[in-house]
Structures are given as C-alpha cells and as structure tokens.
Amino acid sequence: MTGGDRRYGVRWRRATVMNLLGLLLLSWIATLLSSGTTRGLGGPDLVLQGKKSHFSTAKLSTTDVGFGLVPIQVETGTGTQTRYVLRMGFAAGSLDGFCLSQTEQFLGTDWTIRVTSRDGQLNVADVSGSKVQFDVTSVTSTDAPNTSGNGISLRGNVAFGAATQDVTTWRDSAGNPVVNPLDAPADLTGINGRLFAIDSDVGELYNVTGEIYDAVIEGPIMIKNLLIDVVPGTEETAGCTAGEIIY
Question: How much is the pTM?
Fold first, then answer.
C-alpha cells in the first residue's frame, strides 16, 4: 500500500477500546442516576457505589427544599458499609451550568467520564427537574463565576435543627406532603433520637462544588446542550475540579 492509498473499514483495536469505555459510561450513569419507586426517591434499602463523583454548578435554585443528615449503604468491593451524607431533596430545582465527573482506571490508564450542560448565559437554567435528591459528602461555595451571589440563600419558612424525618419536600398525588421524604430511619439515635436537618420553602446555592455519591431524579428532567465525553486524565486534570463553569 502506497503513501497515497486510503484505508477503509474499522480499526478494531481503537473501536474495541472505545466500545468498552462506552459500556463503562452507560453503566456509570445508570448507577449514578436512579429512578425511585419507594416511599422517598431512593428508598431506605438502596445500596450505592462506593466511589464518589465531583460536581459543580454556578447556581442551584430550589423550591420546597430540605437538607438532612442520613446514613446510606455503599458498596466497597468487600461488602457494604454505612456512611453518613448530607441528603439534599427538593420538589423542583434548576441548575445554571452543570458539570459531573468521575475518574476510572481502564487497562492501566486513567479515564475521566464527564457530563456537562451549559449555554453560556448567566442566571439561565440549563438543567431543571422535579422530585430531585442528592447525596453529598462535601459542598463548597466560592465567589466565582456567578457574581450575583455567594453561599446559600434561604427564604420563606426556614427551620434550622429540624429532624430529618420531619422535613417536607415533594407532595403525593393528592397534594399532601410525603412523610419522611428523605428516608431517614426513625429509630436512629442522633440528636434526641433524631438527625439534624434544615427545611426551607426556597433555597439558592451559588458557585457550588462538591462530591456526590448519587443523584435520584423522579422527573421529568430537562437538560440543555448535554455533552458526555470520556477523556484521558484524572479528576484533577480533566474533571470538574480542573475548571469551573465558564461564561
């Protein structure tokens, strides 16, 4: 074959690697984004993957929101363990810019799976959904890129120190608040036998980054300009922590 000849067909080595990475991506998304069918969204018996993902957004806007400490079960490879997370649940919410990433090792090489949504407009929702629940282990707010605010803003009826079991978020088909929507165990010994929580009518979080075990969305969900890519590198070089949501 001369230098000017063209090759046609499938380059099987590259195709096989990318197909396997694609299957890895699909299984990761299926594990991370679950559809709940029990009392809350995830259900008290949900077992999660043991590895956390990184996320960032310029603004998280919510209605009927609750933040509560709850125990979860995670798979460690040698069994399950109980760990405590901050469960964020809200009846409706939107994200202005969104990035979610996780690094996996494949054939000795680090690959970062990255999911992003953004349209380049400040204070315009890129992701919106109803009956949403996040299990996070850390949440940090900075002063960029959204200069409209910083930290967290709670409005309406706000309760600090409420029991996680008493938080109200979404409602059932009859319009009544779902009892214990965050699936906190009623018999857990915490603060006076309860777990600490914050309950609010409206909540806004600006310039948020953190680590998350899972996101459960009952839906419907809307995502603008969705981009899913698999890139070589670690979380620090290719994931959400490598760069903030840019406008």
Answer: 0.75
